[in-house]
Amino acid sequence: MAPPPNLRRTYAGRRVLITGGLGFIGSNLARALVGLGARVAIVDSLVPEYGGNRRNLAGIAARVRVHLADVRDWPRLPELIRGQDFLFNLAGQTSHMDSMTDPQTDLDINCRAQLAILEACRQHNPGIRIVFASTRQIYGRPDYLPVDELHPLRPVDVNGINKLAGESFHLLYSRVHGIAATALRLTNTIGPRMRVRDARQTFVGVWIRRLVEGEPFEVWGGEQWRDFTYVDDAVDAFLLAAARPEAVGEIFNLGGPPRVTLAHLAELLVELNGGGSFVVRAFPSDRRKIDIGDYYADDRRIRRRLGWRPRVDLRTALARTLAYYRKELRHYV
């Protein structure tokens, strides 16, 4: 799906850097930016656990410059950031469980490296425009639903704490150093090119893989409420946030209606797949400790201020994702 056409004049001919650009959202963002005429460069470490996949650039690889680099390699950051007009900062460690078993690595990627990126911007490219991929995980267990941007921030795991620090660094540098930054708090982004090898990125990926392979999948609990964002709609939000001056220094939730229970989501996936099965299990005790319970976002702020609107409903989003992996699964397992 093409991004809003009025964004072409913002991005055509401009230099854009995407950290984590071989991953799920980053690669879809790269495809949109190429379509808008931007000069796109990508930074990705291709560490197997973090979702980067060269297949994600199929069809546009010749039009994108790829730097195989790790954001933890701080001395390389200035050369990558210098001269860029926009930075979409999506590099991150996304697994909540990994953050609990290996907290130092999560700290290095989601916190220390984020500060190093911002320091490179301050010293070598203070005019760059940044949009940071934050997460709804920083809210923790909601006090009320839907969750708006004024909700208290009480992360329940190491990943959430470090992502909150990374977001806070971006907003601080915007406020104090004039590095124009915006944070988008993402929730359950789904779509083509997402990680399906395991649940490090999203549980939906594992469900889809099992369905396509003709195997049953597990639903833990099933009664929890969630909302979802199709990846093209998330890309629209990134593009709008970077293009609009009123977004500087702001945070925005993505997500919102419609919300569904996990059990209903599983039933919908089986229906759209034309068959399949799932088993409802009790929530594993180690994961229950860091689970946030019910969550769905109040996304009225980004709708009101930036005019963002999701264009893909949940049924269509799931159908498109299933269709993609029926063709492409072998490249993602």
What does this protein structure show overall?
The chain is an alpha/beta fold. It has a domain at 12-192 and 230-256 and 297-312: 3-Layer(aba) Sandwich (Rossmann fold). The chain is 39% helix and 16% strand. It contains twelve helices and 13 strands. Strands 3-2-1-4-5-6-11 form a seven-stranded parallel beta sheet, with helices on both faces. It has a two-stranded parallel ribbon with strand order 7-10. Strand 1 (15-19), helix 2 and strand 2 form a beta-alpha-beta unit. Helix 2 packs across helix 8, helix 5 (103-124) packs parallel to helix 6 and helix 9 packs across helix 12. The longest helix is centred in the middle third of the chain and has 22 residues, at 103-124. It is globular and about 55 Å long.
**Largest sheet report:** 7 strands, parallel
Terminal CA distance? 25 Å
Query: Helicity range of the residues?
Result: 25-40%
Residue-averaged pLDDT, rounded?
94
Q: Tell me the strand order in the biggest sheet.
A: 3-2-1-4-5-6-11
Overall structural class, as computed from helix and strand content, comes to alpha/beta
Shape: globular
Strand content: 15-25%
Tally the beta strands.
Answer: 13
- The CATH architecture designation of the domain at 12-192 and 230-256 and 297-312 is 3-Layer(aba) Sandwich
The poorly predicted ranges are none
Provide a count of the helices: 12
- What letter string, H or E per element, gives the SSE order? HEHEEHEHHEHEEHEEEHEEHEHHH
